[in-house]
Amino acid sequence: MHKPLILTMGDPTGVGPEVILKAWLSGALDGVKRPLLVAGDTAVLQRAAHLLQADCTTGEIADGLATHMLQAGNRRLAVRSLSNLPAPQLSWGHPDAHCGKAMLDYINWACDQCLKGTAAAMVTGPINKQAILAAGCDAPGHTELLARRCRTDKVVMMLGGAHLKVCLVTTHLPLKEVPDTLTTEDIVATIRITDSAFRRFFGCRNPRLAVLALNPHAGEGGRFGDEEERIIAPAIAAARQCGINASGPHSADALFHFAARGDYDAVVCMYHDQGLIPLKLLHFEDGVNVTLGLPIIRTSVDHGTAYDLAGTGKADCSSLVAAVTMAAQMAEKQ
């Protein structure tokens, strides 16, 4: 029996519950060759089913990690109910501290199952950072929270789809802080983690990694900045000495054309928007967020709680389907 993929429900007042239910009810997850288990709240999931006008029943079970089973016609979805929120009283887009604690409980439980080896991977739904802060967690988001839980010092945020995959050296920083934050050591570590993950999980024997410059025209010989010569080029040279197929620094304005047509397996980007603008241009609906460098597999939807759509039944489940599919594919490589 295959170990399950755990889907964390995310913010109970956001689109997480409904995109899980929409993907399940539509049959979009039928091709996944592993059992699925939702870490969440049965009452909230039932509310999502009602929103989607699905006739869905819930029953208690004692089957491995599951405590409940959702059923709609011939479809069944296992659930580990980890909270008991008053679903009818929850207001879309307004999570409270109880919702924040529930979000943390879903994530921590799923992470622990992956660490123990009872689950193959976790796929996370979107959370609200203010709500988890109100619940006592000061982590900026999923990535940092999971790194702490796994006791991992360095992880890499990757976002990707079929045509483009980008890995970030720095993530959520003011743009003016990026030049002073970049170090040769961090760039080398990002390249090495990316190379290792692509060899292990993405079937690349010799991953082709394009490393971007920070400044326009790769600094143009120092005219537009010297970070390329001082910081980035030495990192690429060090990575190549370790046998990694890394090239650059490449000018970001031209490189993505070649990456998107398949000349590179991944692009190592210096800052958040440098990578995410082209990624979301190509993969706005089906992009996947993956945390590389953890001892577990974690993928995620590449969107937030979408409070403007929560409760309407109009949220697109494409990113969730892509995240589950990628997690399953990565799990097969373990």
Describe, in plain words, how this protein is organized in 3D.
The protein has 334 residues and is α/β, with parallel strands linked by helices. It has two domains: 5-152 and 294-332, 3-Layer(aba) Sandwich (Isopropylmalate Dehydrogenase); 156-280, Isopropylmalate Dehydrogenase. The chain has eleven helices and 13 strands. The protein has a 13-stranded mixed sheet, with helices on both faces. Strand 3 (57-63) and strand 4 form a beta hairpin. Helix 1 (16-26) crosses helix 2 (42-51) and helix 7 crosses helix 8 (227-241). The model has no long low-confidence stretch (mean pLDDT 94).
DSSP strand tally:
13
Can you tell me the CATH topology of the largest domain? Isopropylmalate Dehydrogenase
**How many domains make up the coordinates?**
2
Number of helices: 11
Low-confidence stretches: none
CATH superfamily of the largest domain: Isopropylmalate Dehydrogenase
Subunit structure: Homodimer.
Binding site for substrate: 142-143, 280, 289, 298
Cofactor: a divalent metal cation
Pathway: Cofactor biosynthesis; pyridoxine 5'-phosphate biosynthesis; pyridoxine 5'-phosphate from D-erythrose 4-phosphate: step 4/5
Short note summarizing the structure:
With 334 residues, the chain is of the alpha/beta class. The chain has helices spanning 16-26, 42-51, 97-116, 129-134, 142-149, 178-181, 184-201, 227-241, 252-260, 272-283, 318-332; strands at residues 5-8, 36-40, 57-63, 66-72, 75-81, 121-124, 156-160, 165-168, 209-212, 246-250, 266-269, 288-292, 298-301.
